[in-house]
Each structure stands twice: as structure tokens, then as C-alpha cells.
Amino acid sequence: MMKKFALTFILGLAIAGAIIYTIPGRQSTKAGGQRGPGVAKVAVETTPVKIADLVDEGRFVGSLESKSKFMVAPKISGRLKQLLVDIGDSIKNGDTIAFLDDEELLLAVKQAEADLEIARANFTESAELLEISQRELDRVKTMRQQKVSSEVDVENAQAAHKTRQARHQVNRALLSQKEAALETAKVRLSYARVTASWSDGTNGRFIAERFLNEGAMISANTPIVSVIDIATITAVIDAVEQDYFKLKTGLTAEIESSALPGRIYQARISRIAPMLDEASRQARIELELTNTDFQLKPGMFIRARIIFAEHHDATVVPASAMARRNEREGVFLIDHANEKADFIPIERGFTEGEFVEIASPTISGDVVTLGHHLLEDGMSIILAGQTKPGAKPAEKSRSEGLGATKGGRQP
């Protein structure tokens, strides 16, 4: 019983969707002046061609990432003596994050200072001895000119002076070495003070993660905390091939987050990946947006709306009006005077929702939206809801407008 009902229902729909009326009383003239049978017409529904503003846009989903994130780690090993920050703390460029135990480093600085004093004393002594040997050499040369000393005395004085010169150069080098050793010790001592610094010092940043606690023994380059910048945040979306070539750096976008309903942030495309991932066939797109109130957080899910292009005063028709005949796309335009539909090939613009832009040619009037699958170019039509020629109005029910009497009897 159910199958019979279903078949009857489907058959009724098919008949309702493709009603062909034969107009009584209208006959076509055949060759020889004879009158032929009635002209067949297809029942269709129409809608007027409209002028509207269309927006070609793309909608994407993605997530937020911090514009900058880095780890703060010491340059030397030691015990974490004091940690000055925790998760969520705001810091500025150059702020101190932690201190390491610096007792050995202080002793190394003192040792280097003592070695420098010794080297400086040796240098001063060698400078004085060099000056004495120079005066002795000058005196022997004078005496040689006066024939008082011999040539051997001059040569001995010159040899002694050269020895003093060499010793003085060695002491000068040792002095420089000890000065460098002291500077090295001071630098290592400064490494016990762990700071967070970055090149752009205009914005403050936040502590995102803490990895260690006070008292821990750490080696060089072991992360203590991570620092992020969320004053300017990055929205990351993935674009498929169809949308990839529409995207350009500098295009604006509207960003929404489910966690902040009703708030729309303006963003700008800053970077476009030069390749698509082979597995997903999508490309990474990065957008920058200001986050001065710090409401947006890295890791949040977002929706992005990007406008590719806008067309004003465009000629548009519903997508349901599009048809294809002889490998060409077009619409059936209604010729009301002759009660027929003409197929007009068109060039499609872009689509927004249920509307399609007609780039060319320029058309106006009504187009068929239902029933065009039965149409060919120039076929006669009848508009849905139009009364058939020659049809009589339906008779009213005999009981319509009649009131019932008592006891259910009618007059």
C-alpha cells in the first residue's frame, strides 16, 4: 500500500513540474491554408533581472598565534637562585627574569683583578728599566765619540737595551691579556643576571610559560620561561587552490571569535605561503591584527571573512535561472509580446550566495527560473498562475454562504 502511494505521489510531482497546455481555440495555419492543432506551451516561473551590488568574498577558519615568541635561557650553567616572574606577568624590554648563584663568578672576578694588578706592576717596572737602558746606551755612545769607551762597550749596551725592549713588550702583552681576562670574568658574572630583551622595544610582552622553579640546577641554554607578544597578533588560515590566487598581501579581512561574540577585528594579509601543502592542497595565509586590549589570545579559534572584489550596479539573476544549451551557458529571457522564451548566451561574473552576475551581454526583463529544462530557444510559454484561455471560473460549492438552520436542516 505504501509503495503504491509513493509511486502515485512521485508521478503527481512529475506531472505538476512539466505541464504542457494545449490552448483550445488557437490553431496554427498549415500549408495550403489549413488549420492545424493547437500550439504547445510550457508552464514556467519567472523572476525579473535585478541590478545589485555583489561582493566576491571568501570565508575561512583558523587559529591565532603570537606575533613573536621566544625562550629565555641563561648563557652559563648554575643554580637558579631567584625567579622574578611568573605566568601572565607583563615585562618590558631588558627586564630581569632571574638570578643564578654567582659566588664562584665573584671570586673569578677578584682573581682576575689581582692578576691584572701584577701584570700592571710588571709593565711599569719594565718601562722604567727600559728607560734606564736607553740612557745607558746614550752615555756609552757619547763616550765612544770621545774615544773613552770601546766599540765592545757600545755593542754590550745595545744588546742590553734590546733585551729590555723585548721584556717590556712581553709585559705589555701580559697586561692586555689580564685586562681581557678581567673583562671576561665580569661578563660571565653579568650572565648570572638573566634578562629578556628583543629588538623592537616599543611594546611590552607577557610571560607565557614557566619551565623551572627556584633552586633548580640548570645548564647553559636551558629555557626558564617563554615570552610572547600579543599586542600585535597573527591569524593563520589555510586557503584552497580556488581561493589561493584571489588572495593578495594587503587585502583586509574581518576576524571573529566564538569566545568574543559580537566583536569584529580588522586584519590585513601580511604573508602568503609560496606553496600548497601536498597532503591537504592548502596554503598557509597569515594576517596581522592589532590587539591593544589583549582580549585575543594565541590558540583561539577564529573565523575570517576576506573580500576579494566588489562589483557595483551589477546585472544579477538567481542561480536557478542558469541553463546550458549547445555547450553554452545562458538564461531564457521572456518575450511577453510573443509569449515565448529566447535563450540568451551569457558570460558569468562571480557568484554571491544564490545570485549570479551576468558580465555580458546587458539584459533586462524577466528570466525563467523554473521549467527551463523543458525549453528550447523560441518556445512558447505560459506563466505559472496565469489563467488558461477559455477556462471557466470554478463553481462555488452549493453550500457556500448558506447558513444551517436548527436541527441541521437547510432551507
Description:
Helix 2 (103-145) runs antiparallel to helix 3. Helix content is 25%, strand content 38%. It has helices spanning 2-17, 103-145, 151-190, 241-244, and strands at 20-22, 40-48, 50-72, 78-83, 90-91, 96-100, 193-195, 205-210, 217-218, 225-240, 252-257, 264-272, 282-290, 301-318, 323-325, 328-335, 340-345, 347-352, 355-360, 366-370, 379-383. With 411 residues, it is α+β, with helices and mostly antiparallel strands. The protein has four domains: 40-53 and 312-383, Beta Barrel (conserved putative lor/sdh protein from methanococcus maripaludis s2 fold), CATH 2.40.420; 60-68 and 230-310, Beta Barrel (Elongation Factor Tu (Ef-tu), domain 3), CATH 2.40.30; 74-100 and 193-223, OB fold (Dihydrolipoamide Acetyltransferase, E2P); 102-191. The protein is elongated and about 145 Å long. The protein is built from four helices and 21 strands. The protein starts with a helix and ends in a 28-residue tail after the last strand. Strands 1, 2, 15, 16, 17, 20 and 21 form a seven-stranded mixed sheet that branches.
